[in-house]
Structure prediction request, 320 residues.
Amino acid sequence: MKYPKVSIILPNYNYACYLTERLNSIKNQTFTDYELIFLDDASTDNSIEIFNKFIQDNKQISYKILINQSNTGIPFIQWNKGVENASGDYIWITEADDFCENNILEKLVSVLNNNSNVGLAYCQSCHVNEKSEKIDDLLWSVKWLDDKRWENKFINNGKEEILQYLAFQNTIPNASAVLFKKNYYIQAGMAETKYKLVGDWLTWIKILLISDIGFIPDVLNYFRIHTKTVRSEYENKKIYNHLYEMYKVLTYIDKNLKFSEKLFDKVSKHFLNVIKYRIKQSGDISILISLLPVLIKFDPLFPKRALELYLSNKNLKKNS
Prediction:
């Protein structure tokens, strides 16, 4: 029996309004050696009906459909479920509300085929709004790390990529832009299901501890931004959870690769700036107070760094 080269995993929860656009962007791929695994996390809209209609109209597509009876609320449980049911050597997780160019698979498959040590490859993404109108590509989000690097294709050692870039932020901002090798994903221990907000970031790090990374600068993936109004107490809880999970990622990197003293100083100062920005965003200082025990555990100099940052900002305001 011939197995497909790529398993496309399509996790969905109540994205019926975007599902046809996503499915069409899969159907129109120039690379066609794939199977499609549709994972529905107990949607209450007509997502399943849309998928079934799509399959009826496109009988040439090999597919599996897996429906949860209750909502898990954690995308990384779905990732693992999809991989466990995948037949392909390569995995493409296509978020249901995103879409892509017709040659994204062809380009990324080529990177993995031509580089045996590369465990994951990704392309540049572009933000789109709810009407699928382009907003901006995400090159701006990494320019502070390196002004020119993401303008060109590259292959890099996985551990170097982690220490130079992924220790500061998730430089792979959208899973829909990534194609990875299933064997490395499994060998890395699969996705961590206890992290709701940074599980993708940690997954890339785990894969890159045992493999290399490839990037192409072509904008082939469209990453949708949703406009939502949320209650402030919910948003503040999310900010706390994000910062706490970020702390756990940094701890994981340090445990596995051991930051040099110089790098640890840079990473810790950057983390402090992220915390400052997020607390300013929320207006709730209690987030910092709640985080203090783990922050001091990660960096005993954290209170000193925080005071220095506060005093430097105060002096800047006084002199301006």
Notes: The mean pLDDT is 91. Residues 244 and 291 are 7 Å apart (CA to CA).
